[in-house]
Amino acid sequence: APATGKAVAIVGAGPAGLAAAWYLLRRGHVCTLFDAHPLPGGMLRYGIPAYRLPKDALDAEIAGLRTLGAHFRMGARWGEEFTLAEFRDAYDAVFVAIGAQHAQGLRCPGEEHALAGVGFLEQVAQGTPPPLGDDVMVLGGGNTAVDCARSAVRLGAHNVRILYRRSRQEMPCLMEEVDAAEAEGVRVDLLAAPLRLERHASGLLLTCQRVTLGEPDASGRRRPVPVEGSDFAIACSTVIAAIGQSVERSLAEREGLRVTGRGIAVEARTLATSLPGVFAGGDAVLGADLAVR
Asked: Per the CB 3.0–4.6 Å rule, which of 33, 174, 255, 263 could disulfide with 13?
């Protein structure tokens, strides 16, 4: 469309930010995307391994945005290099698409000894994976957990296990990914939950407890119920916690945005936030979900 003379600042160059830019650019609006990472793509680049999403395919998609006239300001972190207040003065509108990249901890003693799943995948994507050793435990049942396990196999770990506190039917990941992981030698240990993680001279010791499934909880899935006297320990070289991600909401609140339990609050039809001229979408609103959603 003909140029409108309007300019939009997009905070985050992940799936939601890139999609917003695509439609806005085609409408004739100027778009500048700001992102803390060195390259655009967000979780598509730094959270999904290359064997699932080849980086040349991602780069080709982003090249289409550049052809439409998108501007990228990489290495720009919200709260450090810019504020929403500055953007509201300088642009006609702002779209916040920061995703849900805050990794949740194990919520048990010793959680500081575990690697965060999203952080581990980002290191792998940047070509700087941490040393894992031979025995890797991945805690979680989502796509991030399976991606971590399959990446560990590709990095040379010989004994990789996924530990999940519910049954196979409750795993929120894509089942074909679990099947592929098992075909590559990953073991899936179900109905077990971590109790504590300890570091010893020889490595890590993860103490777990068997569980059974009780009544459904708020998520609609059956709640894990501990089995008394079922504790067991697993010696491992690395533990990766991939039990969930959340939206970093504290900065949004400081800037005056209203938030919900999942992320930034928006008006359902327009995605308008509580600040005039500021909109939000993607995982920043919904909480962690699949990229396409």
From this structure: 33
